[in-house]
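Work package 3, deliverable 3.1, input record:
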Amino acid sequence: MDRPEHLDDVTGAREAGGEAVRQALAGSGEVQDAATQSGLPLRPVYTPADIAGLDYLRDLGFPGEFPFTRGTRAAGYRTKEWTRRQVIGLGTAEETNERLRYMISQGQAGFSVCGMGYANYDSDSEHALGFVGRGGVWIDTLADMETLLEGIDMRTVTINQIGYSIPILAMILAVAERRGIAWAELRGTTQNCVQPGGEGPARHGNGAVDILEFCTREMPLWNSASISVRNTRDQGCTAPQEVAFGCFQGAYTLAAGVARGLDAGRLAGRISFFLSAENDFLEEVAKYRAMRRLWARLVRERFAVTDPRACMLRFHVQTSAINLTRQQPLNNVVRATLHALAAVLGGAQSMSVNSFDEVLATPTRAAATLSLRTQQILAHESGVTKVVDPLGGSYCVEALTGQLEEAARTLLAELEALPERDAFRRMEETTRDEAYRRQRAIDRGEIKVVGVNCFADAAEDDEGAPHIEVQRYDPTWRDKQIERLAAARRRCDPARAAAASARLHAAYRARENIVPPMIEAVTASLSIGEIARIREAALGEPFQPTTWNFGR
Amino acid sequence: MRVVLVQDSTGHSTGYYVVARALREAGFEVILGGVLLPAGIVRLAADEGADAIGYRIMDGSPVILVGRLREEMTRQGVGDIPIAVGGIVPDEELPRLRALGVAAVFRPGATFDEIARGLGALARPPSSGRP
């Protein structure tokens, strides 16, 4: 990137300077070869010689221009800040709605609710005993979705559907319809990702592809697939793996949509990503930049997409939870702030900052508000939003961005050389292997965790240690939810429910796009459990209780 | 020592598999039961002749789930198999779990060694001497 003759001077000088660094390290007993958290080699000092191969216009360009290494918007956060979109979900729809409205009154701009339709049974099932309202909100019927969205303007908030339960998507659409809001006006995202399965090249019967097809045709402002690698990362995989797995799943999803007959450019413009923000600050900033470059090139080269906007990698970040500790939980506030800062410097489009108490329970209202305030302090006080990609051009960050892209590209090629089911299995196995290695390294003290394997002395109560009030789970939530379900069943028109049920059954058997009959089914008040039984009857599948009921 | 490992929910189960691997490497025989209702857990533990049950609980209520498990164990006549719980357990629930006869609780921050030693200590007399 520098003038060639100058670069020679720098390279020469680096040799001399490098010797000084080596001696300093040797004298202090420090290791010579440091590495990032993911194991990428790190130099002690970076110079222009480390990015000699970088071509500014080709590899970086300007923010808002291909390959978007420096960001997707020309003026970055100056024209549009990231969306504050804290994850919320507890109790019944009533408790979650109350929390949502409070958070919106405090500056939250997005609806992001977890727990929606994760299980394939209803609250009155024996499988639900001990679960209702703990791992997110519990939803049985459309009446719950109406309560959940009560008092929330579906035209102004962006709606993030966590997981890709098709009955839940149908409920969101049904509530909009009842309010007279056209689906085409809705802005939001379904955390969708195509997995192997379905019949023929068009994968008929694959619900994830049905979502792509339906949203692409009916909802031009809706992201039909937010590829989630955040949770994979948060289970232990490395930064290059997060990038590679995301690009693999993104490309796989895009290819599945194209095989269904969707336009690659239109679909690509509505694929977004869900990423983590981890401890190694510089590596994380480089990760976001590397992934933007890799994804943009992949979409253009492989899918012949010409509209640069469709090549943009847009992403939501939920900060890491794996790094939050039960011990000395207030330390988590500091960790989450650093994670969030990395996401901001990496150019995230929206964010959820994990609360310091998430390792203890679902966050309290106070802890969730503190997470929102963390975002607001970064946006309004830190000053980092005034310049786009402020770390761009740093010898170190550019070198790391290149290393990340290269490592991810290699992993991506390995995955794509495998049969598709093996590739998905490989991602899972790799993540488990990395998680195992990481825990071993923590146990040995090779990875330092402050408050856990070092500096473990916590302040005592009489030393002014703050008292942490943990969210209480109300044991009556399940009774209340069962009563809500019973009330919905009493109001249900049996003839209409029977017709919707028959129509849904037939659609499953015919491998039709399942979203339109699902909208009829939820509108007729069929519950999540009833819908799952219809599917099983239609496809001859046995009932397997799951809390991962997605794409169905 | 034979340990039946089960979990309360389907998602986010990397930790479950990682702990299983660590236990195998520490010399345990590990039987993965996956997600089961308490009646199913007890049947599996009885069929496998388990020396201990390891119950990963992340989403559900530890007190409710372990309470149901205890009832089933008594009903099926295998009330003496020790139970260890791993996962998100609030401080205030620890005494209630102990009262339900839970022999060990492993929470975030537990090391592989602590889990292996804790489970190893639960071995009943016939299997003592083995890890």
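The interface with chain A takes residues 8-12, 14-15, 17-18, 21-22, 35, 37, 58-61, 64-65, 68, 88, 90-91, 107-109, 111-113 of chain B (CB under 8 Å).
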